[in-house]
Amino acid sequence: MRYAKPFALLLTATSLSPAPAADAVKADFNTHIKPILESACVHCHSEKNAKGDLRMETKELTLKGGESGPGLVAGDPEKSAIYKALLLPVDDDDVMPPKKEGLLAKGQIALIKDWIKQGAPWPDGVVLKQAPRIDFVKHVQPLLEENCLSCHNPEKTKGKFNLSTKEKAFESGENAPNIIAFNAAKSPLYTLTTLAADEDELMPPKKSGGPLSKAETEILRGWIAQGAPWPEGLTLKAKPKKAGVVNTPDTLELAKRIHDFIVATSKEKAEADMKNYDNKIPKTGVPYHMVAIKGGEYMLGSPAAEDKRGDDEGPQVKVKVKPFWMSAYETTWDQYQPYMINTTDRNKDGSPKIWKADDKIDNLVSQPTTPYTEMSFGMGTDGFPAISMTQHAANKYCQWLSAQTGHFYRLPTEAEWEYAARAGTNTAYFFGNDPAQLKDYAWYFENAENFQYSKVGKKKPNPWGLYDIYGNVVEWCIDQYDAKTYGTWASQAKNGVLDASTWVHSKTPYPHSVRGGSFDDDPDMLRSAFRRGSEPAWKAQDPQLPKSIWYHTDAKWLGFRVIRPLEIPSAEEMFAAWNNGVAKEQ
Predict the structure, then answer these.
(1) Per-domain residue ranges of the chain
(2) pTM of the full structure
């Protein structure tokens, strides 16, 4: 990369980058302290995970402290728990951050000490939020070695910029500095990577593989914003860029093979042939139960007079639904865990690293990489709903199940889900409009045991035999969420009626539609018509960059159930359903 834009050097009191006198600039909360605390501390010290009974989202909470005493004592770092924890031995259970996450750099610790000595000034109203922590060796080093070092090394210093060592990276270049700790907006190492593909100053240039992905530029931005820590003595060397995973068996051709198996296996040809059925997952012997749902017509959405109605629930649209089966219960850990945890060595996209074209089709389906934490979060697995998977993971589970059973499974469309939930009714709930009856049918905020999910099937089912269709966990639909969807569908309806198999194909990672409400929701969010979209915050604690395509680690109330349409679609339609939208984070 060549960096040609001059910027003034940020004078900093840290050893994160070469700088003038250590007392040249005092630690500033917003510039220095906030990004350190948000990336290294808040994920363990917030409302959701108050380790040591310490929360750090606000000044008041941090001052209050926890089991180790006051978090902050203005003017006295030695009496401030958040500083003392930084100095503990690396193997101490109370060291902050923990050993597995990596200690802070000496310069970052020095900044925190300086800030506390100043009186720990914390601007009024500033609330800390968790941010991904960027690790130089894991995230930044491979990015620089694969994209920058070939032009900026001791032998080839294009633009007189040598990126091989910490000292050279911060000092060299025709218009140095190119990295300004805590100020990504004035660091050409970052800003030149964000230019348009046709810009002459784009780095790396288009001919050399640029531009970088948004995830890669975000790594650089986050690293610099957190102080650009660079381990002492670490030298970078140019390395070839790793090729993306292209040798995957999980393609349209695999979908065609699964389609042929389904056509040869499925026996039901007409609605009259449909019956409820029990089946077992061939690989595991775990049972599941499917409920036959006849086709029909209904009004999708809620009337204007419905209490607590959201604007995204209208205008109402008349929908024609083709017959399908829906699982009587939410997908349980018994069913999902063998798909999630498997012994096959996999690429990050879930495809097997070693495979043969004649392998069994279910073995060729992409499956999740191993989670970095126990995904039930201690709430139970035997008979409890599986949680915290992305829509992509749920889609691929449907493909995995289809490839074993010879039945086409997928997530329901929003229109199909609401049709099944209503069970022939047009009231706010399938039992009427009075939420006081909800306790008989659903787990929600007011009655959830231990404020967590419950085993499936403990409440009464709806009239069509579907358990927990309201509450317990919210359930994925296949659609991209859009508040204006129903207005669009109303204009597309033929002769005033919409086909329920219509769904909004994905264009972006967020939002995707979920339905039914959860154990953590109020009654109005359990209404048949209530809609909600997924958010990036659902995986805020995921430490990976880019974040996992398989897990929503912060959505402990998120699950799904599957449907099986009577009408078998084409292989191309199956492939679209199992590989919907954008799987990777941007």
Answers:
(1) 271-578
(2) 0.69
